[in-house]
Amino acid sequence: MERVYIFDTTLRDGEQSPGVSLNVKEKLQIARQLVKLGVDVIEAGFPVASPGDFAAVAEIAKNVRGARICALARANFGDIDRAWEALREAEAPRIHTFIATSDIHLRHKLRMSREQVLEAAREAVRRARRYTDDVEFSAEDASRSDTDFLCQVLAVAIEAGATVLNIPDTVGYAVPEEFGELIRTIREKTPGIEKVTISVHCHNDLGLAVANTLAAIKNGARQAEVTINGIGERAGNAALEELVMGLYARRPLYGMITGIRTEEIYRTSKLVAALTGMTVQPNKAIVGKNAFAHESGIHQDGVLKERTTYEIIDPTVIGIPKSTLVLGKHSGRHAFKTRLAELGYSLSEEELNTAFARFKELCDRKKTITDDDLLALVEEEMGRVAPTYELHYLHISSGTTIVPTATVGLKVGESLVEEAACGNGPVDAIYKAIDKITGIKCTLESYGIDAVTGGKDAVGSVTVRVKNEKGKTFLGRGLSTDVLEASARAYIDALNKMAVDVNGPRIEP
Ligand SMILES: CC(=O)SCCNC(=O)CCNC(=O)[C@H](O)C(C)(C)COP(=O)(O)OP(=O)(O)OC[C@H]1O[C@@H](n2cnc3c(N)ncnc32)[C@H](O)[C@@H]1OP(=O)(O)O
Ligand SMILES: CC(C)C(=O)C(=O)O
Ligand SMILES: [Mg+2]
């Protein structure tokens, strides 16, 4: 199989993302991880841009082994000399020089004629070749350039000694068929092209960076310029992980391999997100939090029966331990039961049904159900005796200027019994109303509340100890996103245990 070389420009184009600035230590850390990932080329920076960028390239060139180290330079001697100064200690250095070839750029930005651009390209490549025999030339804005002129510039660069010719879609304007066609035309029309590697560098302004890169590869490109998580100027660059996994998942279609150790992808993505502060959107392909998460019951059931029903890539291949079944309001019993089993709980059919019903109720109130939520919920369910009293409703009126009042409705057997009471606080009022209903004489020994999970929508866990007249203590636990409801449930839980102790278990109808 043929090889596509992976040129990572996270540290150069990736760092051009608005708001991103990496220091030397951070760049070094990312470069080391890129080597572990197996990229072929690391574009470490643009040395003329700042002393910091120069230092980062120099440090990486000096210390990082296992990949080619590349530095960017405009098509002028100052930039190229500075790039070489930074690169000189690299084991395998590459100078990457570029100049725009589109009429828009020539007329408005460079204010140069085509002849001047041809000359600048020739001189820049020659200058770079004085330092190293690995010289990449980029025709900036190639996709909006006149194709004949583009091929002319590329031919000049080859003649001057460029070894890699990069075709950027600088402004993300191309679409796949057209970009693939451009690569084919360049191969047909550029003298000497067979001596060099064709590279592509696609931006994501239309969300087509990876699609364009794949189209280019289909048409003969053998180096792909990419960034981790697709970060980069404006809408970013082609994402390394998407391109590599596209080639991997559709290998028979492309017949290409890369040197990427895919199991390092997820770790690298995490590192880059942490150091750049550019968080990865949850639905981002390959590395997003949801990329291997299944929430809906039908999908979860399918994945549990056979992973490939809903997964085109095994997540372990990219370094994610396994796919996750996210329990939420769309989940079904299969996933619920499986997760509980993983947590060590084996529930009877009846317990499962009740726990599942409560789980669905919780899902309507809470966005994400965590394992802690599940544990708390099931523990409550399993520790439960057939209840004498069940909470039917709870109404509380409380505030800084009114007497806290609670109205509680409890199901006692088949009947609904309601009472209201005032208290020192809302919990006191609830407990007094419950006492009126049950008529049980008892004292509240202790009351504790914990957030079982983090966040504003956390489940509150209330634990109470209640002593009966004979001095026996009963523990009650209640859970809810509403702490007052959790308080009521905990108290009722303790009273139910107390009732069983006195009367024996209630026989369910
Ligand atoms: C598509 C890309 O991603 S290209 C890389 C973009 N990255 C960056 O620009 C980040 C780093 N850049 C910088 O730090 C600065 O822009 C520098 C240090 C490179 C240059 O700074 P300044 O000298 O202040 O110039 P400034 O950025 O304002 O303008 C760019 C100049 O370079 C010229 N230029 C732009 N591209 C090229 C090129 N490839 N070859 C030669 N000259 C070029 C422009 O025509 C302009 O020249 P002018 O001053 O004669 O009008
Ligand atoms: C410097 C070049 C390769 C570039 O980043 C672009 O054209 O997008
Ligand atoms: Mg770019």
Automatic annotation (TrEMBL):
Name of protein: 2-isopropylmalate synthase
Species annotation: Thermodesulfitimonas autotrophica
Keyword Aminoacyl-tRNA synthetase listed: no
Classification lineage: Bacteria, Bacillati, Bacillota, Clostridia, Thermoanaerobacterales
Subunit-level organization: Homodimer.
Taxonomic superkingdom: Bacteria
Biological processes annotated in GO: L-leucine biosynthetic process
One GO MF term: 2-isopropylmalate synthase activity
Gene that encodes it: leuA
Listed pathway(s): Amino-acid biosynthesis; L-leucine biosynthesis; L-leucine from 3-methyl-2-oxobutanoate: step 1/4
Summary of the function given for this chain in its UniProt record: Catalyzes the condensation of the acetyl group of acetyl-CoA with 3-methyl-2-oxobutanoate (2-ketoisovalerate) to form 3-carboxy-3-hydroxy-4-methylpentanoate (2-isopropylmalate).
